[in-house]
Write a structure and sequence with these properties.
2 copies of one chain form a homodimer. The first copy, chain A, is of the alpha+beta class. Helices cover 25% and strands 26% of the residues of chain A. In chain A, the strands form 3 sheets. In chain A, strands 7-11-12-17-16-15-14-13 form an 8-stranded mixed beta sheet. In chain A, strands 2-3-4-6-5 form a 5-stranded mixed beta barrel. A 3-stranded antiparallel beta sheet of chain A has the order 8-10-9, with no helix packed on it. Chain A starts with 17 loop residues before the first strand and ends in a 20-residue tail after the last helix. At the A-B interface, β1, α1, β2, α5 and β7 of A face β1, α1, β2, α5 and β7 of B.
């Protein structure tokens, strides 16, 4: 392994080699470098600092020049005050600046401190005519969506991405604090977890998939982009008891809807030694904001829908899947609070859902969480851990050979277990009160759009 | 948005709806549930606890039965002691158990506490003849690799995955503590960052890509799996100053080597207002263990290679890329410590690398970090932020139209910036002293292999 001591090295010429200590890195200028958020929170006035960022406003007055400078560390910019002589023609909205000065208490009530500039350097110009965002103008989310390479420079979208980063860290902390092991489940997979269509296939670029080739696949088998890490998490729950994954998931859905993306993030958890949907729902409640939730059974949901006076497009017969219109109605009916719907018809659910053995109305131990505006936010189930029942169902579906490895998980030390998945972008829509999923992801991918 | 108060809901039958508080969830049994790691660390003896896990050893003696139970929370199992009458035929290596008893101080020096069992339930049996891992046997990493769905149940691989999870959290903390914003860069992309081949293409499964179809692509353009999030991070560095991404990356490399995977994790960072490779190298040093590093230029590296008596397979002329054999030699030559190689020939580097303008030996401000055993661990560069130079180079490569958006980043508030990427699995090999990259990822994908 890597040796811990530095050995003397024969040198060819001087100075061919140099050795580093962190002190070498501490250059004069970086010692005074400060991020805007730190400057804003600073209690010490009179400090010499250097700020680097982008100009968000320029107000030249007779004697003084006022700038707002943002470096992405916070929504609030730092106010910079300078003598008029520091004003230059290229000091425009959107340009990049490097400023040194002293932090002083601000006379204004808008901020605690301001930067009295001694030097302003325009590092990168920005032609205000060509720049798609205009000073003092409030651009709609729809408008800025046209500029995926620039929209992070707007207040609204940069704030959303800061919240996304925070939410993402909070989710990781939640699972870590609760002793879940993080598993990087694979993006490329040879199985189709949901048994559904709408998969993306993966092939080396330029691969003609020549049918004369005896082994036409890069991976020897057809490979797809994952629709869920669940089956891989089940493998891991059989060793670590509680595991989660948080990463990209894919659907080749030909949809332009404001709730769908071809690439989205999903939080998935799998818990061993879990025997009831209650345990699963508890984790979902903990992960969400602490609030009250309702629980209704699928059968009750159908009763509610059938008793309503609303004309639905899709069938509300027992055995039919709940459609968006049904979900919306149920959430509204329950008083616009999140609703868990449990125990779905057995035939509607994939092979892994646990059989409730409650014929004649045969259900599986599956749960969906419906929330206002967004609709389905989480989905989960107990998994069939009984070898005999799972084996029968897979045989019935002609999948026994494909899932031999999955059956083996039940053959060797099987335990009751279950899990759930939550769409991260839908979660963000939910906590932010936004409507379009394209506004809460850095680079949106959906049918007919893969910009950058 | 979601209402904060629970409204009364009209009910159809009782109890159609129930409202939840977290107390409802606290069932009797879960109050005494304890993870093995917590039990092992417990100072309180006489406590009633319930342990759920898998049996790692069974030693029946005349009066007593000794079990080792592991639930994945630690390498060390919990010793369980029970009267012989609790022994059953199905209590075998690998079976799943649910045990209640009292934690007592252990008379043995091997552990602080042991569990005196009052009840042992075999939840899931495990036939020791069919189970591929045998009691008391030490299975090689090569052997367990054949069982991707079961290898997490071995001591070695479960420990590796716990370390992977910790390392992953530590990397996130490092960036968070240093005010980097996490960006989820897309997996599906329409650009090819490295300008190289070996890309995976993405299409909806069953898509025949009929050439008669006027718009044969799901995304309207050909789409690929990302080889790097760099260009997307550059977009974000232009607003947030310091950003990083940590996620899966792909290469359709037809390699069975112990250092390559088709899907691997990469940590990438991009930093605005960075003007020297020193800054980039500093971050890489901070991210790695604190230790001494060497720095040599590419030109010096070539001098070293040419002066050596070793016969290399590949050319060591100035302008040629460094091959694995060269990297190994350089690291060894420097005394088996990590070596940064800086300032590579301009023509060897992609369009985004910053021109050092140092003709006749024309170089770009790029850096690779070579480490013992593993070879290339990190790669980074300053990016060309000067519109004119970048524009010329893209025009020369016939890529100006494709990268119009990238040029615009230089048109509007451009700043000197740079970044680097580190292969996470190679990092793990490096800190763990392991040799095969397939042993440090939960599910390995490489040419001709995509199990599960």
């Amino acid at each position: 392994m890597m040796s811990l001591t530095l050995q003397r090295i024969p040198v060819f010429t001087t100075p061919l080699f140099c050795r580093w200590s962190s002190k070498v890195f501490q250059r004069h200028c970086s010692r005074m470098k400060m991020r805007v958020s730190d400057a804003l929170a600073s209690k010490e006035t009179g400090t010499n600092v250097r700020i680097q960022g982008w100009v968000r406003s320029v107000r030249p007055q007779k004697d003084n020049l006022f700038l707002n400078v943002n470096d992405g560390s916070s929504l609030q910019p730092l106010q910079v005050v300078a003598g008029s002589h520091l004003n230059t023609r290229d000091l425009t909205f959107g340009c990049a600046v490097d400023i040194t000065g002293t932090l002083e208490k601000s006379p204004s009530k808008k901020q605690n401190v301001e930067l009295q500039a001694q030097r302003i350097e325009v590092v990168g110009e920005c032609n205000p005519v060509d720049f798609p965002f205009k000073i003092k103008e409030r651009h709609s989310l729809e408008y800025v969506r046209q500029f995926p390479h620039l929209r992070c420079r707007t207040n609204a979208f940069s704030s959303l991405l800061r919240i996304r980063s925070e939410a993402s860290a909070a989710i990781q902390s939640f699972f870590r604090d609760n002793s879940y092991l993080q598993i990087h489940t694979p993006v490329i997979t040879s199985n189709d977890c949901e048994g559904a269509g709408e998969l993306f296939q993966v092939k080396p670029a330029g691969d003609k998939n020549d049918s004369d080739d005896p082994n036409p696949h890069f991976f020897s088998v057809p490979a797809y982009l994952t629709v869920s890490g669940q089956l891989h998490l089940e493998v891991m729950a059989g060793a670590f008891s509680a595991v989660y994954t948080f990463g990209p998931t894919f659907r080749a859905e030909n949809s332009q809807s404001r709730r769908h993306l071809a690439e989205f993030y999903m939080v998935e958890a799998e818990i061993a030694f879990t025997e009831s949907l209650d345990d699963l729902m508890k984790d979902q409640v903990d992960l969400m904001l602490k609030r009250k939730f309702n629980i209704i059974s699928y059968t009750e949901a159908i009763d509610i829908l059938k008793s309503s006076s609303q004309n639905f497009t899709f069938s509300t017969e027992w055995g039919c899947d709940l459609q968006t219109e049904h979900e919306k109605f149920l959430v509204k009916h329950c008083g616009n609070v999140p609703v868990f719907v449990i125990n779905y018809p057995y035939e509607l659910k994939p092979f892994y859902a646990r059989d409730n053995q409650d014929q004649p109305k045969h259900t599986a131990a599956a749960v969906d969480l419906l929330v206002p505006e967004v609709g389905e936010l989480c989905g989960g189930s107990l998994r069939e851990e009984r070898l005999e029942l799972l084996s029968q169902r897979l045989a019935h579906a002609g999948l026994k050979d494909t899932y031999e490895w999955y059956l083996q998980l039940r053959e060797f030390g099987s335990v009751p277990h279950g899990g759930f998945g939550m769409g991260f972008e839908r979660y963000l829509l939910c906590i932010l009160g936004l409507h379009n999923i394209k506004d809460v992801i850095p680079f949106a991918r959906f049918s007919h759009s893969c910009l950058l």
